[in-house]
Amino acid sequence: MEKILRELNASFVGTDFQKDIYFNAAKGKLKWRQGTIENLITQYERIYENGLEKTIVYQYDLNPTQEQISKLYNDYKEIGSIEKERKIFYIANVKVHLDKMKDNQTFIEIEAIDREGTQLTDELKFQCLRIKENLGIDDVDLIKTGYF
């Protein structure tokens, strides 16, 4: 996969070692990510539409303070965690993660990111589908809403 991404001129951001701690939330998923590259608290919901998932982000706090982390533990119940090695690549606005879990399972995540809300949903879908096809990922290999 890395070879194909390089052939697609993807830029390699780096390898992140992440621990995601999930909390019980009334809507979507709520997690605190502790990583060597990415540190954040985020709450999001994935909506399955026509073979792809659209993510609605409700909260995205980069580099949370100790106060924000303490509030998370005070307000929500921890429900589980995942540790992984994540190689991060970008092709324009599309972020590709190559994840390796502690048990050596591997996963790929492709995210077309539109932070300004200026791109059409169909355009974002096309970007993801094109990279999915280039990586040789079949629909039967897809996992709905992630691996947690």
Describe the fold and architecture.
With 148 residues, the protein is of the alpha+beta class. It has a single domain, classed as Hypothetical Protein Pfu-838710-001, CATH 2.40.320. It is built from three helices and seven strands, in the order H-E-E-E-E-H-E-E-E-H. The protein has a seven-stranded antiparallel sheet with strand order 4-3-2-1-5-6-7. The protein is globular, with a radius of gyration of 16 Å. 9% of the residues are buried.
- The total count of helices amounts to 3
User: Could you list the spans in which at least 5 consecutive residues all have pLDDT below 50?
Assistant: none
- What do we call the CATH homologous superfamily? Hypothetical Protein Pfu-838710-001
Q: What is the first-to-last residue Cα distance?
A: 22 Å
CATH class descriptor name: Mainly Beta
How confident is the prediction overall: mean pLDDT?
Answer: 93
What's the domain count? 1
Relative strand content = over 45%
Helical content, roughly? 10-25%
Which strand order spans the largest sheet, edge to edge or round the barrel?
A: 4-3-2-1-5-6-7
From the alpha-carbon coordinates, what is the Rg to the nearest angstrom?
16 Å
> Which CATH-level-2 architecture?
Beta Barrel
Encode the helix/strand succession as letters: HEEEEHEEEH
Q: Strand count, sense and closure of the main sheet?
A: 7 strands, antiparallel
The helix-and-strand class reads alpha+beta
Instruction: Kindly report the CATH topology.
Output: Hypothetical Protein Pfu-838710-001
Count of extended strands: 7
- Cα shape: globular
